[in-house]
Specification:
The structure holds two protein chains of two kinds. Helix content of chain A is 78%, strand content 0%. Chain A has one domain: Helix Hairpins (Orthogonal Bundle), CATH 1.10.287.3510. Chain A is elongated, with a radius of gyration of 17 Å. The N and C termini of chain A lie far apart (55 Å). By secondary structure, chain A is an all-alpha fold. By secondary structure, chain B is mainly alpha-helical. Chain B has two domains: 78 residues, NADH-ubiquinone/plastoquinone oxidoreductase chain 6, subunit NuoJ (Four Helix Bundle (Hemerythrin (Met), subunit A), Up-down Bundle), CATH 1.20.120.1200; 39 residues. In chain B, helix 1 runs antiparallel to helix 2 and helix 2 runs antiparallel to helix 3. Chain B starts with a helix and ends in a 5-residue tail after the last helix. The mean pLDDT of chain B is 86.
Amino acid sequence: MMEPSAYLILSGILFAIGAVGVVARKNALIILMSVELMLNGVNVAFVAVGSYLGDPTGGIFAFMVMTVAAAEAAVGLSILIAIYRLKETIDITELSVLKW
Amino acid sequence: MEPILFTLFGAIAVGGALLVVTRKNPMSAAISLILSLFAVAALFVLRQAHFLAAIQVIVYAGAVVVLFIFVIMLINVPENRLPVEKLTVYRLLGVVAAGLLMIEGAVASRNFSAPAAAVNEAGSVEAVGRALFTDYLLAFEVTSVLLLAAVVGATVLAKKKI
């Protein structure tokens, strides 16, 4: 029997790595992948706690997070395609038209 | 047995995640993302969440990452036009801040303990399906509206003229 906190710590590690990817990278594709990593890290915590408490609610939450992640990937990637068509770049530091 | 498998798949998941955020080429990052997602699916199996492990492989590795790979190949940025990313002080500080966030999370969750459920059936298809179609029916139906909005949004955004 594993300690439940091991799963929570692993979840935190995955979330932190994803957060570093979001704030430190310039490639928009990799930023979107890092967001997926963060959502996935949260799913580990939901599933682990749900299974330790013997409650299917944790699994339901992870299911909803996966749905949101899929929708987010579809919309985010189509925005990326539209940006690439207009600006010929996926470098987020060059996309500063909204910056004052 | 569980600690050994947890260490193995946890290490694969973390290693894959590290590769995702460090690779320059988006295609290598996408392949590493598949590795990490598969390891997390194995962790779900370890926690008896068989339904979610299957969904993880089908939806994440089978649909989301394939979508990523399609887009990588579709826009096909040449190697010399990829963003130049140098290691600066600010980015190192970002890594340090993430490390602190991680330690804080570990400290906050180290005392979490749960009563051991005698027979754990919470992750089975039957238990998840029962909860999904009774207690969480409204959320489940709203999900379909979310997916419809995503489909319409993606189609409109990727059109030739916006």
